[in-house]
Amino acid sequence: MKITVLTLFPEFFDSFTNTSIIKRAIDNKHVDFSSVNFRDYTLDKHNNVDDTVCGGGAGMLLTCQPIVDAIKANRQKDTKVIMMTPQGAPLNQQKVHELAQSDDVIVLCGHYEGFDERIRSYVDEEISIGDYVLTGGETAAVVLCDAMIRLHDGVITTTSHEDDSYENGLLEYPQYTRPIEFEGQKVPDILLSGHHENIRKWRLKESIRKTYLRRPDLLDKKELNKEESKLLSEVIEEEKMK
Ligand code: 4H7
């Protein structure tokens, strides 16, 4: 996968690309990442990329010319152009899977008060990482790129992503490591029993409990099988008793 971020602050991505799993993914050529300054494409004699808002009002907007020329110079036939904005479609794990299918993406990061509306006609997807406002699109772009890159084969070497929160529509079950007891808190006995079927069932139930308590909206969306429905009923009963 090739990712080109168009930004006024290409150095913003240095720590992202030079750290841990993402660094390894780039070194191992699972992903070809570059950040490009769209100011380099301005034809303005003062290198400006912004201008005042037509109709009046405070602040400045990013102008069409530098951004559209940067998109045209960095896109191929099958490139998906993604814009990070507070008005975009909410990002979730399903959307990450969809976007990570693309072999080539451009991620556009805004600043000031945002983009001239006409830039949107050069964009395939407008994405928001959540219902809050950021000073610039770079932090949102890092979130999207991280989520896409980690899905690529070979980037994460564990068995699969299947146990990740959101992959199966449930939050992750509680996990423990040594010591067996820490300041009076014990690892649940069942996890030390070596009984794989009981452990599988316990994890599924605790996944359902965490989702029921924290994100009941996810349970409403999920089709539960017979075993999951039974475990959910048990969880509801147990939580009533507490
Ligand atoms: C596009 C348009 C993404 C990008 C406007 C970006 C939140 C998200 C930005 C703006 C983002 C998200 C510029 C509007 C700064 C607000 C103070 C960059 N914010 N901004 N203004 N939720 N900001 O994904």
Explain what this protein looks like in three dimensions.
The protein has helices spanning 14-17, 20-27, 64-74, 93-100, 138-149, 196-214, 216-221, 226-241, and strands spanning 2-7, 32-37, 50-52, 60-62, 80-90, 104-109, 125-128, 181-182, 185-186. The chain folds into two domains: 2-158, SPOUT methyltransferase, trefoil knot domain (Alpha/beta knot, 3-Layer(aba) Sandwich), CATH 3.40.1280; 181-240, tRNA(m1g37)methyltransferase, domain 2 (Trp Operon Repressor, Chain A), CATH 1.10.1270.20. It has eight helices and nine strands. A hairpin with a 2-residue loop joins strand 8 and strand 9 (185-186). With 242 residues, it is an alpha/beta fold. The protein is elongated, with a radius of gyration of 23 Å. The strands form three sheets. Strands 2-1-6-5-7 form a five-stranded parallel β-sheet. It has a two-stranded antiparallel sheet with strand order 3-4. Strands 8-9 form a two-stranded antiparallel ribbon. Helix 4 packs across helix 5 (138-149) and helix 6 (196-214) crosses helix 8 (226-241). Helix content is 35%, strand content 18%. Bound molecules: ligand 4H7.
